[in-house]
Amino acid sequence: MRNFDLAPLYRATVGFDQIADMMDRVLSADVNHPTYPPYNIEKTADDAYRISIAVAGFAAEDLTVEVREGALIVSAKKADEDNERTYLHRGIATRAFERKFQLADHVRVEGATHADGMLHIDLVREVPEALKPRRIEIASGSQTRKDVLDHQSVN
User: What is the pTM of this model?
Assistant: First the structure.
């Protein structure tokens, strides 16, 4: 595996430290990324997304969904109630887990539903008005020249 030094990025930029931190996390992540539980991420509209996580064997009370420090954290812990059961084969995993999804700026969790062994988390991106593109009206050359002359005569 290659090691990348992101120090030049920190020295040459201001305000992009979140991107550098995210790149550092991704590049240093363990190759054996956990695969439990399986999940899908889908785009449901231009500014809407849904994360669906297979949580067979877990009740809604066993699941926790929270947003902390720009990350969506889904965790589950099931009370151990199978002490008196003896399994010949146990293929349905109900072990505790924690999944983190890094959220982009202006993405907020709209809600979560649990049905038929699936946990669905709906996300929506809300770009503030100040960050949306806006059209600048172009004045004619005579208006601009007059405004400049008026400004110079005041000063």
Answer: 0.66
